[in-house]
């Protein structure tokens, strides 16, 4: 449990973040740590959580609320432990100071505001992919198209692509690029991952066959068929590195040309395999999709460990392996620092 109970923001009355995501309030009474609407909290377990605010009131003014807030954190942990160790979730402790001025403490919200990216239906995902590939709509976030345009020198890449959760806009861009730019030969073979094996988070082998689908990039219609199958049969578990291991086992000639397409808002469940990739000198290029208010440090760690690179819609980070401790830099305006061999987002 990494969260430290320290005020992030003091404000008269809580207002939700304007971060482009949906938000659900988890209510608690003033001065109490018990969750009042557990049903709504259970429903959130289907979604991708991106941020959490703990909201309380400084009333009576000056009282120490540390123990109450600690109990509230433990209450949330009891029902939703998986969100506490996810890299990309940002946390705030919001102190409301307006009660002493206005009175009416019950008019103020107390509890957790949980921000999430809703999981789309299979129908919605399939429709969006078809609409983008057929040119009926343009992708709102064109990360893949922008990166591919910058790197036409990439040839015969072994692509390892996440098709879990809300990755359909990026899957569509991959298909659109294959359809429109076949002569460039940017990519040769593709592995889609979307693990259907819940034991993946505890496994200790690098050749688990579950949740991995492969296809040649020669025919975009065939690639789409396999991508849709992977989307429908998987179970929203990000087996990123497992998929790379499977890819180089099936296509050993692609060992030096691995390109991972990853979801910024999900953590790989198999980070222990990074040592295998490092030992076997397999550099991993990573396109990180969906970056806005936060950046997933796992992908920087993978690229640094494997002498790989990281790419976003606007940037290419090619010197991660040679960075010295204490180096600071920005990705999409997000300040990041390398400290004791690990990357951290600076708030």
What is this entry, summarized?
The protein is of the alpha/beta class. The chain has 10 helices and 15 strands.
Structural write-up:
This protein is of the alpha/beta class and 347 residues long. It folds into two domains: 9-117, 60s Ribosomal Protein L30, Chain: A, CATH 3.30.1330; 122-345, 3-Layer(aba) Sandwich (Rossmann fold), CATH 3.40.50. Helices cover 29% and strands 24% of the residues. It contains ten helices and 15 strands. It has helices at 38-44, 66-79, 99-102, 122-133, 143-150, 168-180, 220-233, 240-250, 274-279, 297-306; strands at residues 9-11, 22-27, 48-57, 90-96, 111-117, 157-162, 187-193, 212-216, 258-263, 284-289, 309-311, 316-317, 328-331, 334-339, 342-345. The strands form three sheets. Strands 8-7-6-9-10-11-12 form a seven-stranded mixed beta sheet, sandwiched between helices. β14 (334-339) and β15 (342-345) form a beta hairpin. α5 runs parallel beside α6. The protein is elongated. The protein starts with 8 loop residues before the first strand and ends with a strand. Residues 198-206 have low confidence and may be disordered.
CATH architecture of the largest domain: 3-Layer(aba) Sandwich
N- to C-terminal distance: 18 Å
CATH third-level topology of the largest domain: Rossmann fold
Query: β content, as a range?
Result: 15-25%
Main beta-sheet strand count, sense and barrel state:
7 strands, mixed
What structural class results from the helix and strand content? alpha/beta
Order the strands across the largest sheet as they lie in space.
8-7-6-9-10-11-12
Taken in chain order, the helices and strands follow as EEHEHEHEHHEHEEHHEHEHEEEEE
* Domain module tally: 2
Q: Averaging pLDDT over every residue, what do you get?
A: 91
Helix content: 25-40%
* Count, helices: 10
The CATH first-level class of the largest domain comes to Alpha Beta
Overall geometry comes to: elongated
Number of strands: 15
Radius of gyration: 22 Å
Ranges with pLDDT <50 over ≥5 residues?
Answer: 198-206
